[in-house]
Structures are given as structure tokens and as C-alpha cells.
Amino acid sequence: MRDGDRRAPERVGELVSDISTSARHSPELQEVEWLGGATGPAVGACFSGRNRNDGLGEWRTVSRIAQMSEPRVFEWEVVHYNDRRHGEPLAIWAYTLEPLADGSGTRLRHGMRFGSARGPLHEVIERYPEREEQIVDGRLALLRTGIETTLAGVKAEAEA
């Protein structure tokens, strides 16, 4: 998903690399906290997230910053889910920023892709295999709405 705003990439980059920004605007991510002595974004730094939605209930994650090149890319991998550690990421989330050609602002993209680790979506599908398509479509719709809502919030905050 993408959105454009009237701010320079540096300002938008500051916002999206602040993990509390997503928590302020996401309908699902409720709370975040740096872990292991980290006090800000850096490759390898970890943070916890408390998430909630009506369909899945509440869950906790631990994410690790995988890529950061201010003000262009901020990417993190979800590596723990409800105290279960996974060798590979469950999901990879990213913000990418691109200055508009005319210099008037920034194109911000935000998205996620599923990682290779088996996660809660797999568990639900295993319980209800006859509803796999519905389950996946429903989760993708929630993710899409959450990303759109988060982008709109970041845009409003950047332009304030």
C-alpha cells in the first residue's frame, strides 16, 4: 500500500522508524516496547508488540529490525509469537520511502509479507481446512485495512 504526503523523507523516516508511531495508528498493534537495552531503532534491535483484534483476540510478538537505511527503508521481522521462538520470521514488515520527483513530498509504502515460519494462521487453517480460503481472505482483508489506517495516520501526523 502506498500514500504520498507533503513532507520530506527525513521527517517521514523519523516517524516510521519510531516504533510507537505504528502503535498510535494501527487498529491491531496496541503497544510496543524496546527490549534488551535498546532505546531506539538500529539493525538487530528487538522490540515487543501487543496486538489485538476481534477475530484473533490478543497476542504478543517480538520483532527484530532487519534493515534500516534512513530515511529510505525501515524493515522488521516478527520472530516470536506468544513466547514461541521461530528460527525464521513469521512475517516481514516494512516502510519504504521515496522522494517525489518534483520535490514536493514523499511516497510512503507500507506492507508485509509472510515469512517462512509456521504461525498462527497455519494453526487456524489446520483446525478448519474446509475454510482455508475464507480464513486467508479474512486475514488479508484485516491486514489491508490495518495498513491503510496506519498509512493515513502517519500521513496526518507528518503533515501536522
From TrEMBL:
Annotated region Disordered: the residues are 1-22
Q: Name one Pfam family in it.
A: Polyketide_cyc2
Mind telling me which CDD domains this protein's record contains?
SRPBCC
- Composition bias type Basic and acidic residues, residue spans: 1-13
Residues passing through the membrane, by range? none
Source organism of this protein record:
Streptomyces echinoruber
Q: Which domain of life is it from?
A: Bacteria
Stretch forming the signal peptide? none
The molecule here is called: Polyketide cyclase
The record's listing under InterPro entries reads: Polyketide_cyclase/dehydratase, START-like_dom_sf
